[in-house]
Amino acid sequence: MIPLASAFFFLMIFPSCGNAAPKQIGPVFPETVFTLPVIDGLKMDWVLAALDKQPGWKGKNTSDMRFTVDAKGDPWFGNGDTRLFMDPVRNLYFRVSEQYGDFVFLDGGDHLVCTDKYLGTPIFDKAHPKTDGGMPLLQLVKLVTLDKKGCRLFAGAGKTLYIVAHNDKTGQDEVSVLASGGGKPPAASKILGAAGHITALAGDGKRTFFGIGNWVMELPADRAKPIPYFNARKPVTGLAYSEKTGLFYATASYAGFASPKFQIKFITSPNPQIALRGDSLYVRLNRTMGVVRISGAARFRKLRWNEKKPANNAGAAD
What we know:
The protein is mostly beta strands. Helices cover 0% and strands 49% of the residues. Strands 5, 6, 7, 8, 9, 10, 11, 12 and 13 form a nine-stranded mixed beta sheet that branches. The chain is globular and about 55 Å long.
């Protein structure tokens, strides 16, 4: 175990972000600071350098674009209103056949999309290819009918998919897990109803973590009752979890790692977004398409405090 209180930290202040070919944003990046613990096996590199002109997006603001990472570690961006999907690393741009609300990639490679009516997957018809606005057109193929509008998707570890929807009758945000197998069609099974608005969610189908306000709550494997996990001191905007790496979280101004015994923030940046693939944490910075990868994310679990701290407040930032 590495004592966190005595570990050496380094600061990395942008724009000294390497010699990437694209022009990098200058005035914005002084707001971003990394304070990563120096641990063997923990390193950071650029997956996608932040640009001041977004290719394929005609220079429009990308802050409202959904961000996720596929099973290969490529970042994807999407906007349901314009029916756009894009992977700037591989220079791939698509439109889908109808507007969508949310999309995710699962560890197994599945690409899932939700509309107000159903959960589906986009496919490209090679036999009858179509284009829209000069981009290949993907057709959405229905998998599961959804009984509520405004569903949000959260990719869990492995092939776990969480679906969150608001129940107008009960006033609760309901969490369901999509299950399939045994020759049966996929079906969503409700595991939780929360009185507050769920802003983030992560898990592996056994342990489930969700954000409500400043709090991260845990639904244990027995699913008996949610319990407080920790107080982030600011509204939680993102969560990422696997049994191997532990839990990472994001707020409107920083991202960090959380255990029941301590929490640390290691990125300060406006509105960071996080995604986890294997042993790598991906962070979208500063309302741009800039994405960094922190490899060796499981090494954060090796950290510990030299002194005992309250489980629900340790290391939380004001």
